[in-house]
Structures are given as C-alpha cells and as structure tokens.
Amino acid sequence: MYRTRELLTAKSGSLPVSRTGEKLIPQTMQAYRLHAAGPSGVLKLKSEPIPLPGPKQVLVQVAAVGVCGQDVMHRSGAIYCANGHIPGHEIAGMVVATGPEVSAVSIGDRVAATQRQACHRCRDCLGGREVLCAQGKLYGEGLDGAYAEYVAIDELSLTKVPTAVQYEAAAIAACAIGTGYHALRLAGVSAGQRVLVTGASGGVGIHTLQLARASGAEVIAVTSSPQKVGRLESYADHVVLAVEGKFDEQLRARNIQPQTIVDLTAKFTLANSLRAVARGGTVVILGNLENGNVEVLPGAFIMREIRLLGSKACTRSELQDVLHLLSRGLIHPIIHTSMPLADAAKAHDMVEQGKAEGRIILKPWY
C-alpha cells in the first residue's frame, strides 16, 4: 500500500517513479464504477487501471470523499441514469502526478476540488461564474469522481488546502459548505438580516446556518423532524418544526419573518417559503429532495415584490473563501463519521435512512 508520505518524492510525468526507478504509484486501484442504478448493493468495489492525467490535469491520491445525497439519488436512479462513471464529487487529497501544461498546482500539494469541471474559455468562465459553464460536467456523473483511490482532475478545479484544514473538512468544503455560501452571496445576505433555512439538519443546511450566523444574520432553522430540534438549537437563533411542509403561520405568530429563505427542500416547502418570506424578500432554491412540479401564486411576487433565485454550486474562488473560513475556525465541519471506501454501500444506506447528521466521509486509505 502506498502512503501519502511516499508519494511526496514523486516526479512530474504520467506515473511517478523514484530516483531508483521504483514505482511509487501502482498500476491499478480500487474503485466503484456505477453501471446500473438500483439499491446500494449495486456498488461493487473492483480493481481497474489508474487514470493517467492528460493536459492540464493532475492525478490526485484521494484522502477523503464526502457522501452527498445526490450520490445516493444518482445511484438509486432517482435523478440520473447510471452511466459507467465513478461516483463522488466531494474530493480532497494530494497531487501525486501531473500531466502536460500544469502550472496551478504541484506534486505534494494538498488540494480540494470544486464539484464541476468547466471549459475556462466561455463568457461565464472568464467572468468568474464557471458554475454556469454550458460545457461544465459534474465529477461523479459527467466525469469520473472520487469513490476510488485515485482520480484525474482538471488543475483549475482544484485549490490548495491550508495546513490547518483536515482532508475530511476539505472534501466537503465545496459541496456541503460552499453550496450554501454561494447561495447566501447571491441573495446578498448581510449583518442584521434574518435568514431562514429549510432542511436545516442536512449536510448543506447545517453548514448554511453557520455561514449565515457568521455573516451577522439572525438565523432560523426549519426541520420536519422533532428529534432534530434540540440539535439545531446550537446553530440557530430560532428553530421551527414544519408540519407537512408548512411553517409560515408559526413565523408570523412569533414575528420572525425572514428577509431571505434558503430552500433546500423545495418540492415540499417552496410554496410555503414564498408565503413566509418578508415583503421584498428573497427565496433561494438550493436543493430538492425529489423531482416534481410545485404550484406557486404569481400574485405573491407582484404584490409583495418577492425575488426567487436559483443557486447551483460554489466557484473556485468561493471554495478558497470557505477553506479560509475553515482554517480560521469560523465554520466547523459537521462530520457524522469516517468510513473505509469499502463501506460505501453502508454509507449510502445510512444517508437514505436519515441516520447521518452531517456528512459521511469515505477514506480509501483508512
């Protein structure tokens, strides 16, 4: 087994070797390649060739990969068809080899990845909004991800991880934390505002609460689970228990209508979020538990001048911001547990059954 400390001496090239010619990276790795949707049992760990980094790509030895709810939905067939890719878009590890023309990172760098690879040439990319790139692909769905010992990644999908930030936190920085950070920036949240987060006990939700509070906002957490109310009180100024997706009347009764709502459970709560937000306020759709249409009343937008925004994912620049917040201890990563890569099916079961509070981390070199 090859450890990180051994790989620090690797040279640039296809697969690095030591000065004596000893191979520091094996030719094969363990990985999950998803060929069919279904229950967690379709996840099969198998041996396959390690990918060679192409132009402007690097090979990353995966130290930690987060298990996102989207991974589970993709594997089950709820949102996308299985397409033969390796899952996993929450990635952190060490650069161990580089392809041609790489300049942004070097061998030995500790790195974290954004969720998507962009083209870096279009108007959106050049304007710093690479999440809108029409050529963009999600790691783990459009490209191979990190449910594996190694992954080849575009160098401009990566940013260096501060020494104070552990790999587990770095892995979830872009998705579980950065997604909420991007949404709050789009909404223009600032100190003194009131921010509400639905689905607040989930991986993205609980970090969005922290980010909103760190910005100086008064924070409201909404959950549908009575068992999670007590835990959320540590992260929010107010906790509201939604009943069948409804919470607007409780807010009015307590006189705590928010200026911004970050809606992570839109299929069930969007209609209520539009009723609950203050006049002139903003509702940001950030996540969804399942596909389906939601009925809205157009008059509410007109009479109350509500803004409805969609928010996708964090940019590379925003990922750097999040890693800085983590390094200063202003945001605390909520990790439910770390597990060996071989336990991916078990991790998916825990997520599906609602047993994970925060993120589960898979570690290939556990």
User: How confident is the prediction overall: mean pLDDT?
Assistant: 90
Number of strands: 17
The percent range for strand residues is 15-25%
Roughly how many Å is the radius of gyration? 21 Å
Helical content class: 25-40%
Q: Your description of this structure?
A:
By secondary structure, the protein is α/β, with parallel strands linked by helices. The protein has 2 domains: 4-160 and 334-363, Medium-chain alcohol dehydrogenases, catalytic domain (Quinone Oxidoreductase, Chain A, domain 1, Alpha-Beta Complex), CATH 3.90.180; 177-310, Quinone Oxidoreductase, Chain A, domain 1 (Alpha-Beta Complex). Helices cover 27% and strands 23% of the residues. It contains 11 helices and 17 strands. Strands 3, 4, 5, 8, 9, 16 and 17 form a 7-stranded mixed β-sheet that branches. Helix 4 crosses helix 5, helix 4 (167-187) packs across helix 10 and helix 7 packs parallel to helix 8 (266-276). The radius of gyration is 21 Å and the shape is globular. The chain starts with a helix and ends with a strand. Residues 1-15 and 17-22 have low confidence and may be disordered.
Fill in the keyword field for this structure:
alpha/beta; single chain; 6-stranded parallel β-sheet; 27% helix; Quinone Oxidoreductase, Chain A, domain 1; 7-stranded mixed β-sheet; 366 residues; disordered N terminus; 2 domains; globular
